[in-house]
Amino acid sequence: MRKIKLYRIINADAQKYIKKIPSRSVDLILTDPPYNLSPYSTGNIKFTWRKDFNNDLAGWDKKSFIPANWINEFKRILKPTGNIFAFCSYNLIGKWHAVFDPEFDTFQFMVWHKTNPPPKVRRAGFLNSCELIVCVWNKGHTWNFTKQNEMHNFIETPICMGRERTKNPVHPTQKPVRVLKHIIKIASNPNDLVFDPFMGVGSTGVASVEMRRRFLGVEIDKKYFNKAKMRLKTAQVSSLSDEFEIQVGKNLSVYNKGKIFKREGFRMAKQK
């Protein structure tokens, strides 16, 4: 893990790959596993006056996610000062609590309030405007709060929109980088290693690199993995913008911690 200078991403089954990660090597596990909400989905909603409203969930959500299957490896790879933050839904938080609460000193949760959730056109219930984030740690964990008003277990942002929302492929549960940066700031330190076993299109990796953390991500879906790879390359260039001047040219040379990395399509020159 010490060889990871910026990030490393792997296209693999995370439940198998995690066994290769050394014990006590990860500072923060920040991830967004499946919610298993597909049994509750009513499918797309059809209208005569507008296009269908997409209410379907991705196929991977149909595969059961069982927190008990991850407790041993999460405990093994996490440093004593480490933290675990995992997005989840109402139907799984009890399962997270039953398994993780007895094994850690503290089990809490955060609420992410989405200011612009998808509409509920038929007005037959509440908007799905809140998501839960499981928070787990032991005594002596990394905790970077300085003021009481920063310690609320509540964060409010829009869902991914505009340029941040990935296209081709679209990821139905993509999380805003702003939410992830907030967690990374309070639960880790610069140069710490952040691990996401359900990387998706790489939002946790982007947030980690931009916050000067190292990142290890695993994603089983090849198309999501390829999108994450593209986004992380862009984030890498952006994270070095205070040290380099980026110019359009033939090649890209990225200077980081004494090493030169070359990329096609751009040229980087050190600032004067």
CATH class of the largest domain: Alpha Beta
Poorly predicted segments: 242-272
Distance linking N and C termini: 34 Å
Number of domains: 2
Strand content: 25-35%
Q: What's the main sheet like?
A: 8 strands, mixed
CATH homologous superfamily assignment of the largest domain: Vaccinia Virus protein VP39
Give the proportion of residues in helices.
10-25%
**Mean pLDDT, rounded to whole units?**
82
Describe this structure in words.
The chain has helices spanning 14-17, 71-77, 93-100, 177-187, 203-210, 222-239, and strands at residues 7-11, 26-31, 78-88, 106-114, 130-137, 154-157, 193-196, 214-219, 244-256, 259-270. The protein has 272 residues and is an alpha/beta fold. The protein has 2 domains: 7-239, Vaccinia Virus protein VP39 (Rossmann fold); 243-272, no CATH class. An 8-stranded mixed beta sheet has the order 1-8-7-2-3-5-4-6, sandwiched between helices. A two-stranded antiparallel ribbon has the order 9-10. α4 packs across α5 and α5 packs parallel to α6 (222-239).
